[in-house]
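TL;DR need structure tokens for one chain.
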Amino acid sequence: MVGIVEKHPLANAANSGDARNIYQCIQTFDINHLTLILSKLDLRKSVEIVNMQDEAGYTLLHSAAYYNTFKIADYIITFFKRRFATYLKQRYLKRHNLPRNTQ
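>> reply
TL;DR here they are.
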């Protein structure tokens, strides 16, 4: 099982299972389970996963490259890009007191 660096927000006691499961999905090429796990993360945590590291210092993309899982690497990049855009939009709207679109 993959060890997770404790300083990462997903690595705290409540979320260490999610972090381990994310890395395990990469190792076992299980994109369906990975999609399910990532979709359940709140917006802020889903943005922070790009920095998550295992005990060897590998990020999710490092692991996807190591296990030669292009499809998973592509999904992680696409997922992060969408979530980060949503996160930035919400921060912008909040900062400028603009109405939020609920769609």
